[in-house]
Design a protein that fits this description.
The protein has 136 residues and is mainly α. 57% of the residues lie in helices and 0% in strands. The radius of gyration is 43 Å and the shape is elongated.
Length: 136
């Protein structure tokens, strides 16, 4: 008995070059798509951070402008005049300084009373009102 190697069917995997190329192409395509997705997510994170920082910068610029305006007012003669009359208790020539003083034991103005809180609603009354609102 002679065995013919060429006539017997080949055992194992019957994979052609085209099938290997398709599998390799799919693997490369999937890896490219996944990498692209990761880059898109990273870009979205960067864009969101940039928008947050732009908002913070605009708020800080507004604060800086307000502080510069306050600084300009504090360095002006108008501020010195306002401070001297209010906190410094200084007067101009011809003015008289008046400091109101209350007598000891004098009644102060009573503070207005807050309205009394509404009485609590009992649970069954709340349900009755919710279901039959137009009866009352």
């Amino acid at each position: 008995m002679t065995s013919n190697a060429s006539s017997s069917p080949r055992r194992g995997l019957n994979i052609s070059f085209v099938q290997i190329a398709v599998v390799v192409g799919l693997i490369l395509g999937i890896s490219i798509v996944l990498d692209f997705q990761q880059r898109i997510q990273a870009a979205q994170i960067i864009i969101a951070e940039a928008e947050r920082l732009e908002l913070e910068v605009s708020k800080l610029q507004a604060d800086q402008e307000g502080l510069q305006a306050t600084l300009a007012y504090v360095e002006s003669d108008a501020y010195v005049e306002d401070w001297s009359h209010s906190e410094g208790q200084l007067v101009r020539p011809g003015e008289v300084l008046v400091i109101p003083v209350t007598k000891p034991g004098a009644l102060s103005t009573p503070e207005p009373l807050a309205p009394p809180p509404a009485p609590p609603i009992i649970n069954w009354q709340l349900w009755l009102e919710l279901f039959f609102d137009n009866i009352q």
